[in-house]
Design brief:
alpha/beta; Rossmann fold; 3 domains; four-stranded parallel β-sheet; 12 helices; binds N-carbamoyl-L-aspartate
Length: 361
């Protein structure tokens, strides 16, 4: 299915050269923001946030305001017709008739892609459940470029909730496209990276290993990407409590890290980084949040000026197949075409949430 508009659902909708252009533009805007203050005059952006957000929502909003554009939207779907049972399809159709660009965050995987199927303007995925978060990755790329001076030949440790961390999934997919990067995946067995992301790392040829001790690997890292344990995505409070506090970065542990290692975190922080570390020159997470605003300014300008169509569904429709991810958008938005891509002879991958399904023969 091809949409007449450009959308950003996942970074791999575009070539690496395009991401670099957006990041370069973000850096130019950071250095000379006043030049861009009228770049989106007369344009309206809608932010539809079905899930809480501070940084992503406000950085998108300030980005548009700093470009001279205006805003509509909601951050509490209870205040919109969603509370009356309106489908994602209808809400998107209506809002995309009012706005020039739509930014969506949703607690269900594949929601932004589902929205893009009906939208009459570009849609940007601002996070869909624990699945993808491409604009955080653009933020991370700009941060790495400015703080490390490169996007390649980095040893990156990612620590914490690797199963639910959508920022981790999108960042790994992106960084595996640059030469010489190596990944150390630091988590408990319960919070390991989903296999579809590991498969992407394997096929890109990037070395990666899974470990459970942060202390052991800290001295070899150029970048440490900390994440919070995502309480809201656990089936029960007991399961969350069993994982909580497993990884806490302390000033004592940090003594063994390289003097030029940088610490990133998409935020919000719960307690996985000791507050004292905020004053360490290696702590880059607050700067990272500011880079997010500049890169989103670059992204809004780019998307509003793109004249391309987006292929949203590449696979085959199997309306009798059921995605086995209970948090896939195909379960709540029943009208969606159930589209799957074949992986080898025996697997189908859902095109909304990437969950894999064994074909019964
Ligand atoms: C992250 C997110 O929403 O996925 N935060 C963000 O976008 N800045 C990480 C998180 O919620 O833990």
């Amino acid at each position: 299915m091809i949409s007449s508009y450009p959308h950003l659902i996942d970074l791999d909708d575009y070539p690496v050269s395009w991401w670099k252009e957006v990041v370069d533009l973000g850096e130019k805007i950071k250095n000379n923001p006043e030049i861009y203050s009228g770049a989106c005059q007369g344009k309206i952006m809608a932010t539809l946030f079905y899930e809480p957000s501070t940084r992503t929502q406000m950085s998108f909003q300030t980005a548009m305001l700093r470009l001279g554009g205006r805003l509509i939207g909601f951050d509490n779907p209870a205040n919109s017709s969603v509370s009356k049972g309106e489908t994602l399809k209808d809400t998107t159709k209506i809002v995309s008739n009012y706005a020039d660009i739509l930014v969506m965050r949703h607690p269900v995987a594949g929601a932004a892609k589902a929205a893009a199927l009906t939208a009459d303007c570009p849609v940007i995925n601002a996070g869909d459940s624990g699945h993808l978060h491409p604009t955080q990755t653009l933020t991370d790329l700009l941060t790495l470029k400015c703080e490390k001076g490169r996007l390649d030949h980095l040893t990156i440790g990612l620590c914490g909730d690797l199963i639910n961390g959508r920022t981790v999934h999108s960042l790994l997919k992106a960084m595996s496209c640059f030469e010489g990067n190596e990944f150390v995946l630091i988590s408990t067995p319960e919070l390991k990276l989903p296999s579809y992301v590991k498969d992407i790392l394997k096929s890109s040829g990037c070395p990666f290993r899974e470990v459970s001790s942060l202390e052991e690997v800290l001295p070899e890292l150029d970048v440490l990407y900390m994440t919070r344990i995502q309480q809201e995505r656990f089936a029960s409070r007991e399961e969350y409590l069993a994982q909580k506090d497993t990884y806490i970065l302390t000033t004592k542990k940090l003594k063994t890290a390289k003097p030029d290692m940088i610490i990133l975190h998409p935020l919000p922080r719960v307690d996985e980084i000791e507050v004292e570390i905020d004053d360490d020159p290696r702590a880059a997470y607050f700067k990272q949040a500011r880079y997010g605003m500049y890169v989103r300014m670059a992204l809004i300008i780019t998307m509003l000026n793109l004249d391309t169509k987006t292929t949203l569904l590449h696979g085959t429709i199997h309306n009798d197949a059921v995605c086995k991810n209970p948090n896939c958008i195909t379960h709540t938005e029943k009208y969606l075409p159930k589209s799957f891509v074949s992986i080898g002879d025996s697997l189908l991958e859902c095109e909304y949430c990437n969950e894999r399904l064994l074909i019964e023969r």
